[in-house]
Amino acid sequence: MNVAKAKYIISLLLTGALCASVQASEIAIETAIEKAPTIEVFSDSSLQIVSGNDHTTVYVIDRINRFQQVLSKDLPTDPEAAKKTVLQRFQRMDRQLSGGLENAANGLLKATQYGIDRYPAIVFDGRAVVYGITDIQTAIQRYRQWQAGEPRS
Fold first, then answer.
1. Helix or strand (DSSP H, E) at 60
2. Which CATH number belongs to the domain containing residue 54 in this structure?
3. Tens of pLDDT along 10-42?
4. Structural domain containing residue 14
């Protein structure tokens, strides 16, 4: 075998080994991403939720009630004047407030679908719920213990 042919074979072997290594790394990353649970937090504005991540959606359920309080504050006693005032307030609603209302409405819908009857509640992958905890990392720990069949500590 000549030297050029040997170098060619060695470069092919090295390229194959490098590609296999890169492919294994990509598979490990994809697996880690797939294992990260989708987390939905159901809370109210009085609770401080700790340490969310990209896979976390926080629903602040009481925003609708708070919005109703803002809309109905100091309304005239005349029903037609009150209706006009509420309509004007509603039209002046900014995007942040409207996003908050959408978040609360979606949260109420999801909470109803999941059968959540109190909060704080943290739902994992739409199938497991941890109640009474506002620290997401602690809830993830409990969720993983449950998945592994371990007793709570």
1. strand 56-60
2. 3.40.30
3. 655 555 555 555 455 445 444 444 567 889 999
4. 1-35
Are 8 and 27 in the same domain? yes
- Residue indicated by tokens 């995007």: 95
106-145: b or e for each residue (b if 16 or more CB lie within 10 Å)? ebbebbeebebeebbbbbbeeeebbeebbebeebbebbee
How does pLDDT run across 58-87, given as a tens digit for each residue?
A: 999 888 787 777 778 888 888 888 888 888
Largest Cα span, the chain: 101
- One domain, residues 140 and 106: yes
Residue 82 placed within a domain: no
Q: Is 133 helix (H, G, I), strand (E, B) or coil?
A: coil
Pull the structure tokens for residue 35: 């294992």
pLDDT in tens, 110-125: 999 999 999 899 999 9
Q: Which residues pair with 122 in a beta bridge?
A: 41, 130
